[in-house]
Amino acid sequence: MANQERGDLVSQLVDLVREFSGLPECRNAVKEMYVNLMRRVKLLNPLFEELKDSEEQLNADDDVQGLQFLKIALNLALELLKSVNGGSKTFQALQIDGIADKFRAVTAQIEEALCKVHYDRFDIPEEVREQIQLVHLQFKRAKRQIESPDLQFQTDLAMVKKGKEPDLEMIKRLSAKLHLTTINDLRRESLAIHDMVMSADGVPENCFELMSFLLKKINDFVMLGNPKLDSSDHESSFVRHRSPVIPDDFRCPISLELMKDPVIVSTGQTYERSCIQKWLDAGHKTCPKTQQTLLHTALTPNYVLKSLIALWCDSNGIELPQPQGNSRNPKTTKIGSECDQTAITGLLEKLGNGNSDEQRAAAGELRLLAKRNADSRICIADAGAIPLLVELLSSQDNRTQEHAVTALLNLSINEVNKGIIVGVGAIADIVDVLKNGTMEGRENAAATLFSLSVLDENKVAIGAAGAIPPLIDLLRDGTPRGKKDAATAIFNLCIYQGNKVRAVRAGIVIPLMELVKDASGGMMDEALAILAIIASHHEGKAAIGQADPIPVLVEVVRTGSPRNRENGVAVLWCVCVGDIECLKMMKELGAEEVLKELLENGTDRAKRKAGSLLELLQQVQLGANL
């Protein structure tokens, strides 16, 4: 290796250690492991500084090779520290054994690289040599027994996982260990969980309920059980005697008012329900804040943020007005001409006791009434229409069946009605329409399942009812509208791991890849979004890898829209991690230049994935040179 290249290698090591020094403080359950690894790495810096001042010492090829291996190991350590210092603290706590294994692995890799660096023959000051020997010994000891979470913390987590109701002392310990001790901590944690749900990686099915449960318990403790955590007695008194400043995250981006009923759109942004609904009703197809095109217009309740807003209002002595449209206020049923109770009662009589023609006509009228406005949807459900409509899903008359499933779709827009529809056992009948109905019936059944799947508890039930294979059939063979309905339902269902597996085993990857290749078909956005979410599961990754995805995905990253480039590079990253052949193919297709451009101009998530892929490609090149 030329002197210039040796000098560059040492300079890169010096810069790498500086990056470690610039990392922020860790405030989560892995803090001890984080601090110890960072401290040991920083102690290597005197060696690199000495070598930088006298590069001629690097004459032996084995020393250079050792430093190259050390650089790779330190890069992996840096990525690990970055990864554990962000995201959800509750999720990291539940995954702490796996994280400890990662720390153990990277510690072993650094120690093995140090064994290849013969620092004992370098002409360096004795105190530097002794320091490096000491650090090497520390890595060797840590490799055998990495720091583990304290026993009390592990015991507390185990009790929570078993479903035991935690007492006040346990919640207090968990709050302190997770560094969730202020309202700002809790708000950041709720946003981190929300980002996980909306990202391609998703939230593992077995973790989400535990995360939500744990966050709620710590919420209650911080805001109600220990109000002094966020401020002193003097500050608390001051807050109660002034008009509190509403946190920006609690304001609707449209109205700038405190949100009463926060909902999430497909881009991940949160708005007040009434404000974003008016925006959508006006015909807009974009997110007001980001201007991105909405994949769908469904609104997902942001329960975590709603809970935080309620707690904030309570602690500041503010009465939060109740949102309209989701409660069963008796006054809302007195709508006059907007909601004719007598007419609805007459229609329900025909549904239950009429002949086939009367049932068809009544179902059609209820379908139109349920589409009209929120008040009509409440009145129809309160009158008892939902069980009767569910019975008609089994009708032998195709038109009656279409009217019934579409009426349920319109009624399901109301959050309370979603629970009623699922509660009367409608999911299996809706799936049957999806499998065997007319094209219009199948399309509206898919849309109904999507609407119901907005509630997390319904995602598992819908997947278990066998909805995913017929949704894939509709995605493959449906009309353009049917394909859109199927895609949005599949995407939402696959937020949960179990449904990802069902989709992969039902053969979803091939039709998705065909939709990505067909740029004129209008389904590339949806197909890439689904691929990105299922690629995070090992079965999804394997299935995508068998579909020869690299050329088409590289082309998407090269020429696609910002959203498609983001999802395309996310799929590439999942598929190529640990697969040398895929990485070599990417290099042959000129992916490095494409990724470098994306690193400059992509979305934040696309930049992160592009940077990680470039590092993998560089490691492949380094391995080839060695």
TrEMBL record:
Pathway: Protein modification; protein ubiquitination
Xref: SUPFAM superfamilies: ARM repeat, RING/U-box
Domain of life: Eukaryota
Organism from which the protein derives: Lactuca virosa
Lineage: Eukaryota, Viridiplantae, Streptophyta, Embryophyta, Tracheophyta
UniProt-recorded Gene Ontology molecular function terms: ubiquitin protein ligase activity
Record's protein name: RING-type E3 ubiquitin transferase
Keyword tags: Repeat, Transferase, Ubl conjugation pathway
InterPro entries documented for this protein: Adaptor_Cbl_N_dom_sf, ARM-like, ARM-type_fold, ARM_PUB, Armadillo, PUB12-19-like_N, RING-Ubox_PUB, Ubox_domain
